[in-house]
Design a protein that fits this description.
heterodimer; A: 333 residues; alpha/beta; Rossmann fold; five-stranded parallel beta sheet; 6% strand; globular; B: 483 residues; mainly alpha; 2 domains; 18 helices; 70% helix
Chain lengths: 333, 483
């Protein structure tokens, strides 16, 4: 009996040590390795300046470094790497729950990779674990075991997702840059790259995923729910097809034919006639200098396309009275 | 269920606690239910195959035990062989041979209409088929008595730690252990968990990390040139070792926690001194199976030399085919057969030459040269093992020679420098530990348990957190699951 008690005490001590070390690593990882979480900043900003934000950009890396909210007036960009419609839906739901929320316009990216099954599943990582309503997800999908596992993995041990990858990506390859309302300006000039075709092929196939399920019903369902939620709240929605390099679009064409994709999106949007679709996918086909890499705009490209977006939104009446005169210039305030 | 899944993190402690809490006479029921559940997590329907295989071999064993008539015993053995190999052929090889025949006949313009079977390859079918076959062959040979308890026999066939990727256990080793009552043994639990930890390190930290690099090259054989391709060759040789031996470590460790001893499956194969030595260190449970149930029945070493070489080559060709229904595996097995036959034929001559070049104390240099050469031969053969098709092998070999330079920034194409650095450091660490073990006779674990508690705890924390922090938790399947 005494021996058993001693063993139990040792085990408890070992586990306490484990939790203590784990907590330290979590803290270091989230605070030092990872870039700031835009949603958190946004929620805090909303709390401090309740009447400030009228429009919101909610997307993935293409909009994160591709749309400058400074040019769009009282706008906030809470795009994050690889954020699909599922996570966008939960992020939006969380934002709409805020007491001082007064959104009028939601800008969502749409591209040939947007409805892929892989984007929905691959990117359920610690970035989003705070936003995803796992109970709701379990209700929808029914995979109790999988989601419980994910919840534990990303919320209890957020660092268990290949730290070395993030150390390199977030600290060395792309050192943290000052962001402005979630917009992360990117430097670089893709016109100087040489491995463009391989990169385009890899990137496109990575975006569409191994399953090649580019029109996934679950993702479409989340997309619909975003539009429904905006409808209910009286928020206008602008869908933006972000500019891509020609080489990327050519690689993507082999996986997702544009004509078929456009037809499906048009049919999908038939229920929401007020949703504006702004297609810039080929706007910079001849301007690789406006890209950081094969599918992301650099800061000049971002400013150029955001100017164009602003003009189109004003023309469509989607950015009405309170759109303040913008000041073109550097991304950071 | 994958060992490297969150699911297993819950499953295993629950099974272990229930196992020790349960009265001995009911433990087999728990193990059987846990093993079937473990398998059903992948595919429910294919559990039927395991059950059919279990029942056929159980009945065949009993029938063989009841008669002394050699003809009848042979008939029952044939029943077991035909059923098991028939299932294996249908699910694993039919489409391969069908497609090969179709290609051959198409070439000569002969119409061929037999369609491909639309079936999934049942996970671990090659492993449990060989395990259960070894039982019926042993009973036929009179090496062991037939097992009369269906429950214990079913647990032997489906024991969850080694069900889907081995080690391929012999009934003479594993079955008797189910009849022994295993109490809670702190040392065994500690040793088992430590082994599992090392297995997880090999799998999620090393193998899955290198897999990203390897996949990028092998999936696009013409996309890279020079150094990155060469690195991918070496990385795959290390990946497949860490992946498979990692699985074996986890399986052996998990069984040890519950009180069972599974056979050793790997013994530092990268330190092999010749190709024969490789097969006493790599996938030992398969190589001994092939030796006992195929090579020896074909005549073993007691036949004429030319016949021995033919038998050896045949066994390795079949060993390649066992791995997968693809010409790449056949080529891989054949290549090993060639290496072994060539090694046997040149052994005496090589010994004469090396005795002259490396006299006396220089023999140690010869040993390390051998290790280096064998590692490179092994690595060369693994190109066939990993390539998606034979044609890719030649593309890869030619791209490896194009634009080759010792420093090429494109090495970071498939993987960033930090990840690559971490991967290489872990590989160096693993091989450093294995080198120390190779040079000493006493197991390192024996030394480890003598360390002070603080040092042991520090090691445990280091192991756990290096797995958690550096591991890849995308739940990648083990390479050998496909076999």
């Amino acid at each position: 009996m005494k021996k058993t008690l001693k063993s139990c005490a040792r085990l408890a001590l070992f586990l306490a040590g484990f939790w203590a070390i784990s907590a330290v690593i979590s803290h270091v990882f989230l605070m030092r390795v990872m870039p700031g979480r835009a949603e958190e900043d946004f929620v805090l900003d909303c709390r401090d300046y309740p009447d400030r934000f009228e429009s919101l950009i909610l997307g993935e890396s293409h909009t994160m470094c591709g749309l400058n909210p400074r040019i769009l007036g009282e706008c906030y960009n809470i795009s994050i790497l690889g954020q699909g419609y599922m996570v966008s839906y939960y992020s939006l739901a969380r934002i709409l729950d805020q007491p001082h929320e007064r959104l009028e316009l939601l800008i969502l990216p749409v591209g040939r990779h947007s409805f892929t099954a892989d984007l929905a599943h691959q990117n359920e990582n610690f970035y989003y674990a705070a936003n995803i309503d796992y109970l709701d997800l379990i209700r929808r999908r029914g995979h109790v075991r999988d989601h419980l596992g994910q919840c534990i993995k990303f919320q209890v041990f957020p660092y268990t997702n290949d730290v070395s990858y993030y150390v390199y990506r977030c600290q060395i390859a792309r050192p943290p840059v000052p962001s402005y309302r979630g917009f992360t300006p990117a430097e670089g000039d893709f016109s100087k790259e040489t491995m463009d075709e391989i990169e385009a092929r890899d990137r496109a196939s990575g975006h569409v995923g191994a399953g090649r399920d580019w029109w996934n019903q679950e993702v479409i369902e989340f997309f619909r729910e975003i539009l429904d939620a905006c409808d209910e709240e009286g928020i206008r929605v602008a869908l933006v097809q972000m500019p891509m390099t020609r080489v990327y679009d050519d690689a993507m064409e082999r996986l997702v034919p544009r004509a078929e994709f456009d037809a499906r999106v048009a049919a999908l949007l038939a229920d929401w006639p007020d949703v504006a679709m702004l297609d810039y996918h080929d706007a910079f086909y001849e301007r690789n200098d406006l890209f950081r890499d094969v599918d992301h705009l650099n800061v000049t490209g971002a400013d150029t396309i955001t100017e164009r977006l602003r003009a189109d939104l004003v023309r469509l009446g989607a950015l009405p009275d309170r759109l303040r005169p913008h000041q073109a210039g550097p991304a950071a305030p | 269920m994958l060992f490297n899944s969150i699911h297993f993190v819950f499953f295993f402690p629950i099974v272990v606690c229930a196992y020790f809490a349960m009265p001995f006479r009911f433990r087999w029921i728990l193990l059987l239910a846990a093993s079937y559940y473990f398998y059903m997590c992948w595919q429910v329907n294919y559990l039927l195959l395991i059950i059919v295989s279990t029942l056929i071999d159980y009945v065949a064993g009993l029938l063989m035990g009841r008669t002394e008539d050699r003809k009848r015993r042979r008939l029952y053995l044939l029943l077991s062989l035909c059923t098991n190999l028939g299932l294996l052929f249908s699910f694993k090889y039919f489409n391969f041979f069908n497609e090969t025949l179709r290609g051959f006949l198409d070439f000569y313009g002969v119409p061929y209409h037999i369609p491909a079977l639309k079936v999934l390859l049942p996970v671990g079918i090659s492993f449990y088929t060989f395990q259960t076959l070894s039982y019926t062959i042993d009973v036929y040979r009179g090496v062991r008595e037939p097992e009369r308890h269906l429950g214990y026999f079913a647990v032997y066939v489906a024991f969850f730690p080694q069900l889907v990727a081995g080690p391929i256990e012999r009934s003479t080793n594993l079955l008797p252990q189910f009849f022994k009552k295993h109490g809670i043994d702190r040392d065994r639990i500690r040793s088992g968990l430590l082994l599992m930890g090392c297995g997880f390190f090999k799998k999620v930290v090393i193998a899955d990390r290198l897999a990203a690099y390897v996949d990028a090259i092998y999936e696009h054989p013409d996309a890279y040139h020079g150094l990155p391709v060469l690195l991918a060759f070496y990385f795959f040789a290390i990946q497949v070792y860490c992946d498979f031996s990692g699985y074996s470590d986890i399986a052996i460790g998990a069984a040890r926690v519950m009180g069972y001893d599974l056979m050793t499956n790997f013994r530092r194969p990268h330190f092999s001194k010749d190709m024969r030595d490789v097969w006493t260190r790599w996938h030992i449970s398969l190589s001994t199976w092939m030796r006992d149930y195929l090579y020896i029945p074909l005549g073993g070493n007691r036949v004429a030399p030319w016949r021995r070489h033919v038998n050896l080559f045949t066994v390795f060709l079949l060993s390649g085919l066992w791995h997968g229904a693809n010409w790449t595996y056949v080529a891989w097995g054949g290549l090993h057969g060639v290496f072994l036959v060539a090694g046997n034929l040149t052994r005496a001559a090589r010994r004469r030459i090396t005795d002259r070049i490396f006299p006396g104390r220089a023999a140690i240099l010869h040993t390390w040269l051998q290790v280096l050469i064998v590692f490179h031969l092994w690595t060369f053969a693994t190109i066939f093992f990993r390539a998606n098709m034979i044609g890719d092998v030649f593309v890869l070999l030619s791209t490896a020679c194009q634009d080759f330079s010792l420093w090429d920034p494109k090495v970071f194409g498939p993987m960033n420098p930090v990840e690559l650095g971490v991967g290489l450091a872990c590989v160096a660490l693993l091989h450093g530990v294995e080198l120390v073990q190779e040079l000493t006779t006493r197991p390192l674990e024996e030394r480890f348990v003598r360390l002070p508690v603080a040092a042991r705890w520090a090691f445990y924390y280091l192991l756990i957190f290096s797995i958690l922090v550096l591991g890849n938790f995308q739940e990648n399947e083990f390479v050998y699951f496909q076999f």
